[in-house]
Design brief:
5-stranded antiparallel beta sheet; alpha+beta; Double Stranded RNA Binding Domain; 186 residues; 25% helix; single chain
C-alpha cells in the first residue's frame, strides 16, 4: 500500500515471554490506517477508515496464556487469560495472575504465613518487629501502614467523606457507614 506524500509507516519489534512481537502500521493521507500484529506464527489485522475502526483491536498470544492487545490507537496492553482484565505492563499482569492460581511465593520467616505480593509481606513483617514508620504530624501517634495514618488524619480534620444515601448521616470511615446501614436501614 502506498502511503502518499503525507502518509507514514512504522514497524516495531519487541520480545515478550520469549516470543518476538512485530507491529507494522501504515497511515495514509486519506485517513486509512492499517496494522498487523504478529507473534508465534499468528497475526491479527486492524483497519481504520476515517477514524472509524473496522476491527477494534489486534491481539496475539505471547506465551504462557498471556495475550498482548493493541487498541485502534496502537496502545499496548496485556490481557489476563482468565478474567480479561487489561494491564499496562507484563509485570503487573504476572502479579495479578497469582490471584487466580493461588500462588503465594513470599513467606514470613517468623510465622510461615505466605503472601502473593512482596509488599504485603513487608507490611506483615511489621507485626513481628513492631515497626511503625508513619507518624501523625498533628498528634505524634505512629502507625505501621500509611493507609491507617491517612484514615487517622480524618479525626483531626473533621472530614466525613462517606454519606448514607438513605438518611444523609456522614461518617469518617467507610466501615462505619456499612455498619450504620446494616443496623439502621436493614
Amino acid at each position: 500500500m502506498s502511503t502518499g506524500s503525507e502518509g507514514s509507516a512504522a514497524a516495531t519489534s519487541e520480545t515478550v515471554n520469549g516470543d518476538v512481537v512485530d507491529v507494522n502500521a501504515v497511515n495514509t493521507a486519506d485517513g486509512v490506517s492499517a496494522g498487523v500484529v504478529s507473534a508465534g506464527g499468528q497475526s491479527q489485522v486492524a483497519v481504520s477508515v476515517g477514524g472509524q475502526s473496522q476491527v477494534s483491536a489486534a491481539a496475539v498470544s505471547v506465551g504462557a496464556g498471556d495475550v498482548l492487545v493493541y487498541d485502534e490507537r496502537g496502545k499496548r496492553s496485556y490481557q489476563c487469560d482468565v478474567c480479561n482484565k487489561l494491564f499496562n505492563d507484563h509485570s503487573n499482569l504476572s502479579r495479578h495472575k497469582r490471584i487466580h492460581c493461588g500462588e503465594k511465593p513470599y513467606n514470613c520467616d517468623d510465622c510461615g504465613r505466605t503472601f502473593n505480593q512482596s509488599s504485603h509481606l513487608l507490611v506483615h513483617r511489621r507485626t513481628h518487629s513492631g515497626d511503625k514508620p508513619y507518624t501523625c504530624d498533628d498528634c505524634g501517634k505512629v502507625f505501621s501502614q500509611s493507609s491507617i495514618l491517612s484514615r487517622h488524619r480524618l479525626t483531626h480534620t473533621g472530614e466525613r467523606p462517606f454519606t448514607c444515601d438513605d438518611c444523609g448521616m456522614t461518617f469518617s470511615q467507610l466501615g462505619n457507614l456499612h455498619s450504620h446501614r446494616r443496623h439502621v436501614h436493614c
